[in-house]
Automatic annotation (TrEMBL):
Species of origin: Pelovirga terrestris
Keywords linked to the UniProt accession: DNA-binding, Transcription, Transcription regulation
Taxonomy, superkingdom: Bacteria
Molecular function via GO: DNA-binding transcription factor activity; transcription cis-regulatory region binding
Organism ancestry: Bacteria, Pseudomonadati, Thermodesulfobacteriota, Desulfuromonadia, Geobacterales
Keyword Signal: no
Record-annotated DNA-binding residue ranges: 33-52
UniProt protein name: TetR/AcrR family transcriptional regulator
ATP-binding found in the keyword field: no
Amino acid sequence: MGGIREQKKQQTRRAIETAAIDLFSRKGFDATSMDDIASAAGVGKATIYGYFPAKDDIFLHYCDDRLVTAFNQFKEQQSADISFVEYLIAFFMIKFASITENREFGRLLLREMLFPREATDKVRDHNQRYFDILEGVFSVAEKRGEILPDLDHFMLSGHFFSLYVGLLAGWYGCYFNQLEEVEQNMRTLFEQVCHGIKP
C-alpha cells in the first residue's frame, strides 16, 4: 500500500514540474502564478504547496533532476582511458544539449544561474552540486598527471564553466546553431586552456 502511495506522490510531483516548466517556457517565470501551475497540472493549489513552497523550488528541483540525469548519462559514456579534455567536453556537451533542447527554458535557466533574483541557499546548493562534479573530474586528472598539482579546483571549475557559458551565449546569439559546431569550438577553447595547465 505504501508503495502505491509513494508512486502516486511521484506522479503528482512530476505532473506539477512538467506543467510548471511548460508554463515558465511559454509565459515566463514571473508571469506564471501558482494558480496557473495548479490548473495546468490538474491539482489543487494547496497540493502544490505540499510539494513545493514556492515557484523557485519547482524550478530548482527540476534543474537538480536535469543535472543528475546529465551526470549519470555522462558516467555511462566514459571509459577509464578517456583524456581529461574529452571528459570535460563530454560532460559539458551533455549539459549543453539538455539546456538548449527547449530554447525558452534554456534562457530561463541561464538567467537564474547567472543572475538569480535572489541568491538563496537553495540556488547556491544547486550551483555547488555542479562544481562538485567538476572538481571530481579535476581530482582524477591531477592524479593521472594531466594537470598541475595543487591547482584550486573551484577556481578551475569556474574557468571552464565561464567558457561553457560563453558558448551558450554564442548559441543564443545565433553565432552557430549546430551541436557539432559547439563541440568543435568547445574543444578549441578547452585545449587552449589546457596547454597552460599541463605539467
